[in-house]
Amino acid sequence: MKEVHLVYYSPALSTRKIMRSIGKEFNTTIKEHDITQGIAAPLSFTKEDTVIFGVPVYSGRVPAMAVDYLQQIKGESTPAILVCVYGNREYEDTLLELKNICQGNGFIPFAAGAFIAQHSIFSNVAKDRPDEKDKLKIADFVKKSIKKYQSLDSNSSSLEVKGNYPYREVSKIPLTPKGDKQCDNCGTCVKMCPTHAITEDNPKKTDKDLCISCARCIAVCPQHSRKFRGLIYSIARRKFESKLAGVRKDPEFFFIS
Ligand SMILES: Cc1cc2nc3c(=O)[nH]c(=O)nc-3n(C[C@H](O)[C@H](O)[C@H](O)COP(=O)(O)O)c2cc1C
After folding, report:
1. SS3 breakdown of the chain: % helix, strand, coil, rounded to 5?
2. 11 CB under 6 A from ligand 1?
3. Contact 55, 98 (CB under 8 A)
4. N or C: which end of the chain has fewer CB within 10 A?
5. Residue nearest to atom 15 of ligand 1 (CA)
6. Ligand 1 atom 23 nearest Cα
């Protein structure tokens, strides 16, 4: 592989973490393209490149904003590896949707993986993942992907991944993080919010209509001031965690045949 590129959308930074671990397993120079806050310049790749696409799972789908950005990235029969990262519930149609977007834009997906990371809304679910076991799985995934890449030829079929079409319906999650008195108005969340739902004049507040509950503001707040709070959140958290906090799901891989 000549040039390996990581292209990822990662509001709460765990997809980025997994993508970087994947990148490290390739013994070559890696170029990173973080599309969480958009694409500054047109992004296109040739068939000499290999592109690894990474997205988190939102309601079993590729996040809507990521779809918009991914649609602007073009390949030219460019080999691609697809990665989704989910919070230990399910990833449903995410890999299929990612595959269809990438294939439609000139990429040839030949490997895909679904990995698990700490849930960005309910942090006791998949707590502290990815962990050491996940790192071994990542190394195995990359080893197998490289082998597959080396055997790619014109007889290779299309990659099959889990998922259904029509995709699942997505509904808005009615949970919005807010800041508390620890907030020192540093402006980090204002700058980093991918939907501009937080304003400079009162960064403790969040515009409910714009917020996509991505938890980026929580992940980047230097004061640890921003959190999901309130009764509805506490009830949802208890229910979600009682079902999933004690369950361990493992990464799943798919390769072209
Ligand atoms: C709006 C939203 C919807 C989510 N939907 C799912 C889901 O359907 N299944 C799941 O297992 N995790 C779900 N998660 C958890 C994320 O997929 C998981 O925390 C992921 O690691 C977040 O990636 P990031 O840290 O790169 O933003 C959701 C998280 C958010 C914010």
Report:
1. 30, 20, 55
2. yes
3. yes
4. C
5. 87
6. 56
